[in-house]
Structures are given as C-alpha cells and as structure tokens.
Inverse folding.
C-alpha cells in the first residue's frame, strides 16, 4: 500500500527561526512529489518536484527531493507568523490520485 | 474567479439525514476528486472521476455516492449521515493524472449530530 509519512506532525517556533519539514514515501511508482500549504481553507500549491537533487525555491521557502532516500524536505527560513499553517506533502504515483501525508502543523509565535 | 467552487461551506445534519455536496470547476479539467480531512489523518480520497462519465472508489468510499454530472460538476451524496462522517470535505480538480497538481475548493465543514 502506498504511503506518505511526514515529520514532525506539529512544530512550534518563534519568528525568525528556520524550520525543516520532512516527507518520506513508499510508493509503487513515483512520478512527482508536491508540497501544499493549508491555512484556514483549501490547500494551496507550493512546489512540485520530479527530479532528485534539484532545489525549488520561492522566496523564503525551498524544497528538494532525494529519490534515493525516498524523501523530501521543505525549508522555511526567517519564519513569520504568516507561515503558520499545515504543510501537506503528496505523491503522484501515476495513479488516478495523489497520496497525501498527514501534514505538519507549523505554529510561528511572534 | 476561475477555480473550484464548493457548496455549502457549512452544514449540520442529524444522524440519518441525507445531503449532497456540490462541486463545480471552470478550468476544463478532466479529473475531479472528493477528499475528506480529519485531524491527524491528512486528506483521504473518497471517490474520484478520472474523466466525464467515469467514477471510482478511493480509500474511504463507504457511506458515500458520487455523480459526475458533466465535465464541470462532481457531486458527493451522503444517503444516511452518521457522526463518523463529521469532517471537512474538499473537492479538487486536475488535468488528467494530476500532472500539474490539484486545485482545491474552499471546503465544506460538515457536522453530523
């Protein structure tokens, strides 16, 4: 059974801290890994990663995929209170849908 | 605004009542999905429709039915609601196979008492 695991499940930091969120997966066939940010409502797309070792960046957020280790990390530098959210990792396994992890709930305190 | 529209946003049902959650997308996507989200369990797929005219069960289909009315619309029906169906429901759409990720609706918070 395909599975996506995220760690930690919950994290509390202070503004200005740097955080690293982890995602690991076990899937039969791997096409891509996606990161989403979910605040109060719908998840919003952050990154799609398909190639190992290539970092995707958007402002203070960056992500990299390690296909050998079947994992990905999402880094957030100089965190702000607006970064407080649930961060979801999902894997496209060439199936008809994505497999989602349980999410990491990040709380950034002022 | 283009995207995925879900209705209603909130609903309270009594055990045994029925209801239909509506979803429509205007991005000409082929694939549509219904997920439920529960604390600590992430998003779990209920049903999906890879293309107009087809529907398939996901991870947690029991107690639900779906209809892909046309390319734009994909509805989720609870025939006899149970407290275990208290959850937040998300509709999503994507290109075939989701190769460009999903676009999610804003969610329906359903409480069954």
């Amino acid at each position: 059974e395909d599975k996506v695991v995220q760690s930690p499940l919950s994290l509390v930091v202070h503004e200005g801290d740097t955080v690293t969120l982890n995602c690991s997966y076990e899937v039969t066939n791997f096409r891509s890994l996606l990161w989403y940010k979910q605040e109060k409502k719908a998840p919003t797309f952050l990154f799609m990663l398909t190639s190992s070792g290539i970092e995707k960046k958007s402002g203070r957020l960056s992500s990299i995929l390690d296909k050998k280790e079947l994992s990905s990390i999402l880094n957030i530098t100089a965190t702000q209170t607006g970064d407080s959210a649930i961060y979801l990792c999902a894997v496209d396994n060439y199936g008809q849908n994505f497999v989602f992890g349980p999410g990491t709930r990040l709380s950034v305190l002022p | 605004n283009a995207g995925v529209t879900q209705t209603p946003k909130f609903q309270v049902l009594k055990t045994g009542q029925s209801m239909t959650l509506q979803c429509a997308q205007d991005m000409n996507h082929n694939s549509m999905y219904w997920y439920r989200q529960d604390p600590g369990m992430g998003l779990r797929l209920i049903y999906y429709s890879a293309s107009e005219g087809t529907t398939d069960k996901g991870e947690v289909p029991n107690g639900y039915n779906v209809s892909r009315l046309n390319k734009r619309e994909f509805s989720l029906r609870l025939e006899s609601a149970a407290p275990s169906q208290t959850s937040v429901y998300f509709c999503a759409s994507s290109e075939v196979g989701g190769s460009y990720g999903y676009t999610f609706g804003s969610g329906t918070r359903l409480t069954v008492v």
Observations:
- Chain A touches chain B through 22 residues (CB under 8 Å).
